[in-house]
Amino acid sequence: MSSTLIVLNLKTYLEGTGEGAVKVAQACKEVADNSGIEIGVAPQFCDIYRVASQVDLPVYSQSLDPVGAGSFTGHAFVQSIKDAGAVGTLINHSECRLTLANIDASITTARDAGLKTVVCTNNVATSAAAAALGPDYVAVEPPELIGSGIPVSKADPGVVTGSVDAVKRINPAVQVLCGAGISKGEDLAAALELGSVGVLLASGIVKAADPKAALDDLVSKV
Ligand SMILES: O=C[C@H](O)COP(=O)(O)O
């Protein structure tokens, strides 16, 4: 069963000590409650605890490292991410690429800790490869459209439909999101028509003058 999911990646757009992330997360929560659409937010590692403890919505890590407890320095440890309040994680974002072996290990690490996994891919072939590793979601995002304001669902619909078909063939339990340039209600509606179950997005909302109004528009055509 697929229900619509929106994941808002805050990247490193927001400076300060987390108040900005909390404010955007509160807007997400309000829009999620009003629309009935699940909206998750992926803040900076350091803001996961603050956001998750102040706002009742799904929080995702932007990445994690496949290491356990022990002699590891400078890594994003899955148990700390989970204990901070995250329910899921992005893996292999275009701005934080991993090797195939590390994608596999990150999925296993996250799943073993009970976190949902969203593996980002850049084309149909990598969507197929990611599906073979069995994450919860594959999020296909052509890198050239990221941050462009040109929605993948209109500029490159074939990468979405191609990923949906490939993922379904390889592992029907994996659901597909799409991302890059998504910001408006018509972009989300087009993404759903192409067979994805939702979107992964960032700049169109986080950099908007009024993120709450931008989110209201995003869900307005579903
Ligand atoms: O994680 C989000 C994606 O990279 C999309 O970013 P964008 O919405 O700014 O194009």
List the ions, cofactors and other small molecules found in this model: glyceraldehyde-3-phosphate
Total domains: 1
The rounded Rg comes to 16 Å
In CATH, the architecture is Alpha-Beta Barrel
Beta-strand percentage range: 15-25%
Count of alpha and pi helical runs:
10
Secondary-structure-derived class: alpha/beta
What spatial order of strands do you see in the largest sheet? 2-1-8-7-6-5-4-3
Give an overview in words.
This protein is α/β, with parallel strands linked by helices and 222 residues long. It has one domain: Alpha-Beta Barrel (TIM Barrel). The chain contains 10 helices and 8 strands. The protein has an 8-stranded parallel beta sheet with strand order 2-1-8-7-6-5-4-3. The longest helix has 17 residues. The radius of gyration is 16 Å and the shape is globular. Bound molecules: glyceraldehyde-3-phosphate. Glyceraldehyde-3-phosphate binds next to strand 8 and helix 9. Homotetramer; dimer of dimers. This is Triosephosphate isomerase. Its main location: cytoplasm. It comes from Methanolobus vulcani.
TL;DR of this structure?
The protein has about 220 residues and is α/β, with parallel strands linked by helices.
Task: Give a topology summary.
Blueprint (H helix, E strand, L loop, with lengths): L4 E5 L9 H17 L2 E5 L5 H7 L5 E2 L16 H6 L4 E4 L8 H13 L3 E6 L2 H9 L4 E4 L11 H4 L1 H14 L4 E5 L5 H9 L4 E4 L1 H4 L4 H8 L4
Parallel strand pairs: 1-2, 1-8, 3-4, 4-5, 5-6, 6-7, 7-8
Helix pairs in contact: 1-10, 5-7
The structure holds glyceraldehyde-3-phosphate (G3H).
